[in-house]
Design goal:
Oligomer: single chain
Structural class: alpha+beta
Helix content: 40-55%
Shape: rod-shaped
Length: 111
C-alpha cells in the first residue's frame, strides 16, 4: 500500500521541477559571485598594487601589528626600521600601508 502511494506521488510531480532546481542553483551561484567572490578578488588586487608600490620611506604596519618605516625594498622582503638602530626583515605579504598613509592616499589621487 505504501509503495502504491509513493509511486502515485512520484508520477504526480511536474516535469519542470528539475529545471527549477538548476535555475535556483545558478541564481545562488551568481549571488555568491557578486556579493562574496568578486569583492574579495578586488581587495586582493588592490592590496597587491599597494605592496608593489611600496618604496623607501613609506610607513607600514606588519601583520603582527608592528609599525615602522621601510628602509630597503628587496624582491620578496622589506627591511623595516621600527626604532632607532633597530631594523627587521619582513616578508612583503605580511606588510600593509599604515593607516596614516592610507588616509592621505585618496586625497592625493583626487587632485
Amino acid at each position: 500500500m505504501l509503495n502504491l502511494i509513493l509511486l502515485q506521488d512520484a508520477a504526480a510531480q511536474p516535469q519542470g521541477s528539475s529545471w527549477t532546481f538548476w535555475i535556483m542553483m545558478l541564481l545562488i551561484f551568481v549571488v555568491f559571485y557578486f556579493f562574496m567572490i568578486r569583492p574579495q578578488t578586488k581587495k586582493q588586487k588592490e592590496l597587491q598594487k599597494q605592496r608593489e608600490a611600496m618604496k623607501k620611506g613609506d610607513k607600514v604596519v606588519t601583520a603582527g601589528g608592528i609599525y615602522g618605516e621601510i628602509k630597503e625594498v628587496q624582491d620578496n622582503a622589506l627591511l623595516i626600521t621600527i626604532a632607532k638602530d633597530v631594523t627587521i626583515k619582513v616578508d612583503k605579504g605580511s606588510v600593509y600601508v599604515s593607516a596614516d598613509e592610507a588616509q592621505q592616499a585618496p586625497k592625493e589621487e583626487k587632485k
